[in-house]
């Protein structure tokens, strides 16, 4: 196996999707425990050899106050490298989450055993389904009172239209919960309450093995035998193709807080979850094992220091062997950029990345050149598809307290839009910019940031704006006519794409009816414009 094939085969890049409180944070912590403090061989070496570089980086970080949250956590377990991408946890369902899901190859869906599937789980699942992201299910909190296990499986099957195949099955539940039977490997796993002790599995020869009767009290064995028989009758056997196509989910039961079932889940991901997948670009499909480096920006994180406009762009590598110092082409700008200080992210720290492989996430500090959706390559004009922008649901006019700061405000709004914090629309007529967000809270956050980072006082005002739609039209003459007739409702977003802001539902419907050659899109891929 070539070096790149080997590195690709070791990598699993995934996210956890769940409703708040189901146990995502707890599960993440336990997963990281398995990864321990182990770091990737290349990076460990880098650390030893590059003390200088590391402290350089720390200094840059201190000087400029770059702050990077745990957006990505990389860890190694049993010779596999896992890149766990964090999905933002707040209730305001944000575009950020969608974008993170464009950068993973699979997801783990955590369900609270007492609650079943909840609203946020369902929404996130829908995003995964749109992108055919395979899902592994972890049913959590088995140490508590739970719903009936068959009912839970039934709910996944009915609500999400997914086949379910349990990989483990609980022995007892609630206060009686002892552990799980591993249906694939014929072993019994016992839970140790509290702490992080993981007991070794006990091998048995199937459910009829008398050893099982010695290990588990009679009434629980009887129940287990009955349940497993039913599972085997009702659920399809595990089919890896069906899982990878997103039709079937393997189900693990556990208790994250007791670190129970987590190792099995991790092994399940290692065994079945896809390695870095081929990525669709506008011109062709890029295979992970191709030798030339390519990747795309799926997240930009701002600097909190108001004196500097530094940001970290998070790049998902799609192909090739990346090495520090490489010159990559920033396709949108048509320019080369040397990547001197790429970062890798571990459980509790980050470090300069000496190298990285497909599926890995590197952070590139920059001054705003890199935007969400941008592609980096070793020269080819690739544009990866599928980093979406959504028409914001809430639209308000932004007003300056000091009208002389117009130019400054424009810069602030554009920079914040490039980060993906909001969307801004510049009017074709008049001076009032409109800002669009997904959750109401974001207006407050923006106001604060514009004040703290740019020293500009603004307030947001209601405006008759019902919906924003990107306008596309294949007929330039028709588009010109449309522009000329609708000026007062037309805006440009930060990529200079034409946007129609309808005053109300009727206004939107009329425009759609009167201009059948124009498309009014509620989503759009980021940065479709390529320079040169
Ligand atoms: P989230 O990130 O999905 O929002 O969930 P988080 O891990 O924060 O877990 C939510 C609550 O559920 C926490 O309790 C956590 O301790 C608890 N929890 C997680 N896994 C299990 C489990 O397997 N069994 C039981 N019984 N509880 C579990 P909390 O009271 O909100 O916080 P804390 O004070 O315990 O930290």
UniProtKB/TrEMBL annotation:
Keywords: Cytoplasm, GTP-binding, Nucleotide-binding, Protein biosynthesis. GTP binds at residues 18-25, 86-90, 140-143. Residues 9-277 form the Tr-type G domain. It holds the Pfam family RF3_C. It comes from the Bacteria. Its main location: cytoplasm. GO terms for biological process: regulation of translational termination. The keyword NADP does not apply. Gene3D superfamilies: P-loop containing nucleotide triphosphate hydrolases (3.40.50.300), Peptide chain release factor 3, domain III (3.30.70.3280), Translation factors (2.40.30.10). InterPro entries: EF-G-like_DII, EFG_III/V, G_TR_CS, P-loop_NTPase, PrfC, RF3_C, RF3_dom_3_sf, RF3_GTP-bd. It is found in: Cytoplasm. One of its GO terms (cellular component) is cytosol. GO terms for molecular function: GTP binding; GTPase activity; guanosine tetraphosphate binding; translation release factor activity, codon nonspecific; translation release factor activity, codon specific. Increases the formation of ribosomal termination complexes and stimulates activities of RF-1 and RF-2. It binds guanine nucleotides and has strong preference for UGA stop codons. It may interact directly with the ribosome. The stimulation of RF-1 and RF-2 is significantly reduced by GTP and GDP, but not by GMP. Belongs to the TRAFAC class translation factor GTPase superfamily. Classic translation factor GTPase family. PrfC subfamily. HAMAP family: Rel_fac_3. This is Peptide chain release factor 3. The lineage of its organism: Bacteria, Pseudomonadati, Pseudomonadota, Alphaproteobacteria, Rhodospirillales.
